[in-house]
Design brief:
9-stranded mixed sheet; GMP Synthetase, Chain A, domain 3; binds xanthosine-5'-monophosphate; Rossmann fold
Length: 517
């Protein structure tokens, strides 16, 4: 594409859970990098032409049968190589050193003392100890020929090693995790200082390059975009608007399952403020008719997914000939489909518009395919998207339907919407909305007894779900202040008709999920 991709680093994945974090730290140093499986053939690696290679950690032991390896030809590419944990052990193993089976795992914080500040350690103060995070079983018994110890820790005589002449380095600890406070600086030192990449991967440059690229690729083509008001689709729509405004039609389907005020907010922003060519489809009744009597979560998802496609197709047909569908696919989705260990199990059917491009015979344009979520947000800011959209919490495609246990009806939607609006308002007022991953209300399908004044009531229960997470794969309930919970509870009970009880969900994921359905 353009030269923002010219100075790049290759991350080869051996199956570690923190491989994506390595890539994120490299990107934060403003250097472009991609993750590929460790099995990437040498000729492809050469064709990729990286300025440096990072070998990730991994769960295996280098001596285990079928242990993942890498083509040793990478050591002769003439570019710096950094092995992290398993990556360091595989370097040792392939270059004639000895890896010892650990009798006990070393897991947790450790201090390293620097013997020689080279490679990733080049910017660190060698007179001070540095905190790192260890997580390994095996360790280096004998370094390969040409390597020297760069750092040691109490439990690891070789906490970091390097062959400075060949620019090959290994660290036993994990610089990519937050528990290694100077880890980001170490990775930055490696990619900038050692590999010599310039810090040109900025979202400002990305926007310029992508807009130019889209203009070339989409010249004379008609593009449609499904706008949901979430960060990803909003950024895609704005990026395309900047590139090919006249050829872009965005479609916002109001499925009747959105939060309070959402339709007006999205329509107002994109149509009136940003001047997008936006069609707002009021399909609430159709969705609700189809959902009548349905209580099974997966069936709700299927109905909503199919109905969305149908509505979208009908609207698109009115535009006439369309060539491209724009989608907000992000880099983690791309990695997932090529990952070393194969895609992780799909627990819920999350693909809201799956099958749409094939059915409509459309080509796909996915301008965010290379970006992590935070980078997508930065692009949004770069394009002038207001913070209310940029830092929005995730909201599921099937909307409030999967937060209403049991049947989705208009009155039940109204109840949940009102309660949810209070939760969000209070989270914002407490300055916590952007600190947590998600915060929302759930309508529980039971009625309980209460008293109001002298009257006995028999009304609905609202559950509060407020969670912390980094990637939605795991989550824990947020320890928000009791005073905040108390305010939410009394406001919901006082202000939302038909609710006389509020409970708090204190389950972690796993074994629970974030959403209730
Ligand atoms: P769970 O409930 O599986 O949710 O822990 C993980 C994350 O995914 C979101 N989610 C969905 N997003 N369509 C979506 O676009 C869906 O069907 C869907 N189900 C869950 C959820 O909000 C959380 O952020």
């Amino acid at each position: 594409m353009s030269d923002i991709h010219a100075e790049k680093v290759l991350v080869l994945d051996f199956g570690s859970q923190t491989t994506q974090l390595i890539a994120r730290r490299v990107r934060e140093a403003r250097v472009y990098c991609e993750i590929h499986p460790c099995t990437m053939p040498l000729n492809e690696i050469k064709a990729y032409n990286p300025m440096g290679v990072i070998l990730s950690g991994g769960p295996a032991s280098v001596y285990a049968p079928g242990a993942p390896s890498v083509d040793p030809g990478i050591f002769d590419l003439g570019v710096p190589v950094l092995g992290i944990c398993y990556g360091m052990q595989i370097i040792t193993h392939l270059l004639g050193g000895v890896v010892a089976r650990g009798e006990k795992r070393e897991y947790g914080p450790a201090k390293i003392a620097i013997k020689a500040a080279h490679g990733p350690l080049r910017d660190l103060d060698p007179t001070e100890p540095h905190q790192v995070w260890m997580s390994h079983g095996d360790r280096i018994e004998k370094m390969p020929h040409g390597f020297d110890i760069l750092a040691l820790s109490g439990n690891s005589p070789v906490a970091a090693m390097g062959d400075v002449r060949r620019r090959l380095y290994g660290v036993q600890f994990h610089p990519e995790v937050a528990h290694t406070p100077e880890g980001a600086a170490m990775l930055a030192a490696f990619v900038l200082g050692e590999c010599g990449c310039r810090p040109i991967w900025t979202m400002h440059n990305f926007v310029e390059a992508t807009v130019a690229d889209l203009q070339e690729r989409l010249a004379g083509q008609k593009v449609i975009c499904a706008l949901s008001g979430g960060v990803d689709s909003s950024v895609v729509a704005l990026l395309l608007h900047r590139a090919v405004a006249g050829n872009l039609t965005s479609i916002f389907v109001d499925n009747g399952l959105l939060r309070q005020g959402e339709v007006a907010e999205v329509a107002g922003l994109f149509r009136d403020a940003f001047k997008l060519n936006l069609i707002v489809v009021d399909a609430g009744k159709l969705f609700l008719d189809r959902l009548a009597g349905v209580t099974d979560p997966e069936q709700k998802r299927r109905i909503i997914g199919h109905t969305f496609i149908e509505v979208f197709e009908t609207e698109a047909a009115k535009i006439g000939q369309v060539d491209f569908l724009a989608q907000g696919t992000l880099y983690p989705d791309v990695i997932e489909s090529v990952s070393f260990k194969g895609p992780s199990a799909v627990i819920k059917s999350h693909h809201n518009v799956g099958g749409l491009p094939e059915r409509m015979k459309l080509k796909l344009v996915e301008p965010l395919r290379e970006l992590f979520k935070d980078e997508g947000r930065e692009v949004g800011r770069e394009l002038g998207l207001p913070e209310t959209i940029v830092s929005r919490q995730p909201f599921p495609g099937p909307g409030l339907a999967i937060r209403i246990m049991g049947e989705v009806t208009k009155p039940r939607l109204a109840t949940l919407r009102a309660a949810d609006a209070i939760v969000l308002e209070e989270m914002r007022a407490a300055g916590l909305y952007e600190k947590v991953w998600q915060s929302f209300a759930v309508l529980v399908p039971v009625k309980t007894v209460g008293v109001m004044g002298d009257e006995r009531t028999y009304e609905d229960v609202i559950a509060l779900r407020i969670v912390d997470s980094v990637d939605a794969m795991t989550a824990d309930w947020s320890r928000v202040p009791y005073e905040l919970l108390s305010r939410m509870s009394s406001r919901i009970i006082n202000e939302v008709k038909g609710v006389n009880r509020v409970v708090l969900d204190i389950s972690s994921k796993p074994p629970a999920t974030i959403e209730w359905e």
